[in-house]
């Protein structure tokens, strides 16, 4: 799933969260955008300039260095069909030593072949949060709720995303310290035209 064009509500939401973290640092704050095809920008014309991490960086300005570590089809689940954990981007995001991490994984986890491991989703999310929080850079971590699913495709359904993945994210985040949620679902629900097949 990917965006045709990123929405102002989404970027405004992220900018609002991140601007509260500005400091007097002389170096730009490093933001790692960890995620799936939505983060990567799959299906977006001129992805290199139009994907959300690039647009976010432009909106935030020179005080932030935003990098895209998105992987098409990636899952948070370690037992999923394309675990983010095993991708080079996971290592690159770690080595980046970010000050801020935005995790946007969960949509592909909802596919039947992955969601059969649903009982592991919460612990895998907590493990990823802990992994990043324990870096030397001690980043602030944000977890995104998935975007709405306007049309069921590739086994991804609105029923599972809204009814199971989002509650699993909420429950896992409650068990962590200092993690904030960016609610992409709520921000984009009124804007199906911004989603593929919307």
CATH architecture: 3-Layer(aba) Sandwich
User: Per DSSP, what share of the residues sits in E-state strands of 2 or more residues?
Assistant: 5-15%
**Succession of helices and strands:** HEHHHEHEHHEHEH
Main sheet strand line-up: 2-1-3-4-5
Helix content: 25-40%
Mind describing the biggest β-sheet?
5 strands, parallel
Mean pLDDT: 88
Q: Name the overall outline.
A: globular
Number of domains: 1
Count of β-strands: 5
The SS-based structural class is: alpha/beta
What are the salient characteristics of this protein?
38% helix; Rossmann fold; 198 residues; 5-stranded parallel sheet; 5 strands; single chain; alpha/beta; disordered N terminus
SSE layout and pairing:
Layout: H1 8-19, E1 29-35, H2 37-40, H3 47-50, H4 52-60, E2 64-70, H5 88-95, E3 100-104, H6 112-115, H7 121-133, E4 140-145, H8 158-174, E5 180-183, H9 184-188
Parallel strand pairs: 1-2, 1-3, 3-4, 4-5
Helix pairs in contact: 1-4, 7-8
In short:
The protein is an alpha/beta fold.
């Amino acid at each position: 799933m990917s965006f045709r064009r990123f929405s102002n509500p989404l970027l405004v939401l992220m900018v609002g969260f991140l601007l509260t973290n500005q400091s007097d640092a002389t170096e730009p704050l490093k933001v790692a955008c960890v995620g799936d095809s939505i983060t990567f920008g799959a299906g977006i014309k001129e992805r290199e300039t139009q994907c959300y991490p690039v647009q976010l960086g432009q909106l935030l300005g020179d005080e932030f260095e935003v990098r895209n570590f998105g992987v098409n089809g990636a899952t948070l689940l370690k037992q999923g069909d394309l675990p983010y954990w095993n991708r080079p981007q996971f290592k690159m995001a770690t080595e980046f030593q970010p000050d801020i991490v935005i995790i946007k994984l969960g949509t592909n986890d909802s596919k039947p072949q992955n969601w059969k491991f649903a009982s592991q989703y919460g612990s895998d999310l907590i493990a990823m949060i802990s992994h990043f929080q324990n870096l030397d850079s001690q980043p602030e971590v944000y977890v995104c709720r998935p975007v709405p699913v306007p049309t069921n495709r590739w086994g991804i359904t609105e029923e599972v995303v809204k009814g199971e993945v989002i509650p699993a994210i909420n429950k896992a985040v409650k068990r962590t310290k200092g993690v904030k949620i960016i609610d992409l679902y709520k921000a984009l629900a009124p804007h199906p035209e911004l989603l593929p097949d919307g």
